[in-house]
Amino acid sequence: MNCTDLEWNPISSAQSHSALAGVLAGLVFAGIVVLFSDRNPNRSRTRALVFFSGALLALALDSFIFGVIAGEQVCAKAWTETMPAAGLLGLGALGIFGGISWLFNAYDDDHGRVTRLANLLTYTTALIVAYHLKVTAASYLIDMQTSTLYTPPTWLFRLVDGYALLIAVIIFLFPLSRWLRRRLTLPARLRTVAQKSPTTGTTRSADDTLDRAAIQAAYLSVVYVIAVAITSGTLLSRPRGGWEPVTPGYVAALSTILSLAIPTLALLAQLRALPSDAPTPSTRTEERTPESARPHGRHNPGSAGAPDAVTAQGGILASAHAAGLDAVTGQVGRSRLRQRQDSYLVNHYVGLHITAVSIALGIAGVTAANLLAYRDIPMQYHVLFGVLWLASLLAVIAAFAGAVVGSFALPGLIPSMWDLFLPLLIALAEFLLFVILTPPVVGLTQERAAVRSWFLVLGGFALLAAAAITRARSLFSGPGYAGADIAWYVSRLRADTRGAGITACLGLAGGVFGFVVPDAPVWVAYGFASAIVVCLLVAVVRHGRTAQRWRVALAHG
Question: Above 70 in pLDDT, residue 483?
Answer without folding.
Answer: no
